[in-house]
Amino acid sequence: MQQTKQTRQACAGGAVPRHGAVAKPGAALKPGAGVPRPGGAMSDGPGSSGRRDSGSAGSGAAVLSQDSPSQAAGSGRKAGLPTGGASSSPTIPGLPPGGFATILVDPPWPAQSGENHYRTMSLARIKALPVGALAARDAHLWLWTTNALLPTAYEVAEAWGFTVRSPLTWVKFRLGLGGRYQLRNATEQLLFCTRGKAPLGSRSQPTWFNAPVTEHSRKPAEQFAIIERVSPGPYLELFARRRPESNQPWAVWGDQVDSDIRIPGFAVPRYSERAREADAETRTTATERTEPMQTAVAGASRGDDRDDSSSKEALR
After folding, report:
1. Cis before 46 (ω within 30)
2. Are 185 and 169 in contact (CB under 8 A)?
């Protein structure tokens, strides 16, 4: 009798509880529904396979967000970030296989006296940069910030999918200006961040270094020697002002240089020969992918036409 009742329920489309289980009223399961992950099906929380912690192997294709800065700032997800690792993204010309293992960023922070020297960006726009799509699955990020913007810089690193590990303090040889609620600045911060499994190449680097101050906002050349000692290549500098003072083959991107990569949605005035070659390669690859598909579609269409003709002849 019990088996007959369960069979009737199953035929009626209802869920059949296991023996001893108590079904809650109104809690019928949808066909094919699984157990949702904490935070929803697209959760990027700890332990998920999304972009939030790139140490896990996300299986989704890395697709750049097409949201505007205002939409990205108001969305519940990380703006401008992919759902998978950089190695799955074919949409960024100039991106090396697997992505850049180390990225150096000196953002044009708003309201930090830079407006008279270069084009600044809003915080929402900075967060929307697809740094996660540029980086390798296991990667280092070096993020410059002023003392006043330290909390904001931590938020930006998190938005890009990185965890801040240590501050590297640039101790300058001259005092800057203070304020009503600020001490006189004589330092600037370079945050060392990681994602995935990316240990240090050298453990001897302290959390400070000395270097002289030159022109406005120009960072000391000593940074490259430090970064290359601690972090692996390939290397990328975002918002570069000149070619890095280094013997390593850095790629650069920014308003004031011939940029080596193209970032969708973030155009810059000039591109290098390296970027143009990457553009041509991307177009060639896209053509090679689409031509077989177009040929197959055309062949199937001709086959359908022949089938229709045969059917008409048979009817006659």
Report:
1. no
2. no
Q: What gap in Å lies between CA 218 and CA 250, rounded to an integer?
A: 17
| Beta pairing partners, 271 | 259
Residue 280 CB neighbours (<10 A): 11
Both tokens assigned to 254: 């920014």
Sorted by sequence, the CB contacts under 8 Å of residue 126 that are 6+ apart come out as 107, 108, 109, 156
pLDDT at 316: 53
What is the distance of C-alpha 223 from the center of its chain? 23
Phi, psi (rounded to 5 degrees) for 203: -105, 15
pLDDT digits (tens, 9 = 90+) for 59-92: 333 333 333 333 333 333 333 333 344 444 447 9
Q: Whose CA is closest to 156, among 185, 125, 133?
A: 125
Q: Which pLDDT tens digit goes with each residue over 128-165?
A: 999 999 999 999 999 999 999 999 999 999 999 999 99
Q: How far apart are CA 176 and CA 147, in angstroms?
A: 12
Task: Using alpha carbons only, give the angle 308, 312, 316 rounded to the nearest 5 degrees.
Answer: 170
3-state secondary structure of 156: helix
Amino acid letter for position 74? G
pTM: 0.65
Say which residues have a Cβ less than 8 Å from residue 59's Cβ, sequence separation at least 6.
49, 84
pLDDT for residue 29 is more than 70: no
Q: If phi over 0 gives left and psi between -120 and 50 gives alpha, with beta otherwise, what is residue 152?
A: alpha
Residue with the bigger pLDDT between 34 and 149: it is 149
